Amino acid sequence: MSADWKNGKLKDILKLKRQSIKAGENTTLPYLPIDVIPMRTFALTDFKPNAEAQSSLITFDKNDIIIGAMRVYFHRVVLAPCDGITRTTCFTLAPYNNEYLSFALLCCDQESSIDYAQSTSKGSTMPYAIWEGGLGDMEIIIPTPEVAKKFNEIILPMLRQIQNSYFENNRLREIRDALLPRLMSGELDVSNIEI
User: Fold this and answer.
1) Count of alpha carbons within 13 Å of 69, Cβ hemisphere only?
2) pTM higher than 0.85, yes or no?
3) What average pLDDT score do residues 128-144 get?
4) Of 67, 56, 59, the residue nearest 14 (C-alpha)
5) Which of 26, 47, 79, 115 has its CA 20 to 30 A from that of 58?
């Protein structure tokens, strides 16, 4: 370990956010329940309609780290591509210093971090990871702000590309859904198009 790095805990670089929201309070925000968060990938592929958001709701902001806390062993960790709503079955986390965003996300996504969260979970039938006395207290080595900034400058553009692919995929899905019925019905004829 470099002499200017320090020992610390995950909660030294990340804060747990718990901003409650009532169902129907903000219908413009997309809904991200735990079952929609993909396993072992940052590539978010879908949201659910806001109308499905019913209880135990919390908001998240673009670039928050979202971790599925219920049955944490399913390894659901994503970087939010936009503001939205999830349930309290997830942790919504934000770095105290944005220069630590990439470092914090990759710390959370480590298999050893998921194992730690699982080992400190509460409950047997439906185990929930906990932040205080659990994942937040996981010991980590914290790089200097300068190193974290350089790391972020390298990794963040890749994370942005992953985030942007969500929006591009949605746009392509909408185009497909609009064109396919017209193609199938014969309303649109593409037989003369050369590719």
Assistant:
1) 23
2) yes
3) 97
4) 67
5) 115
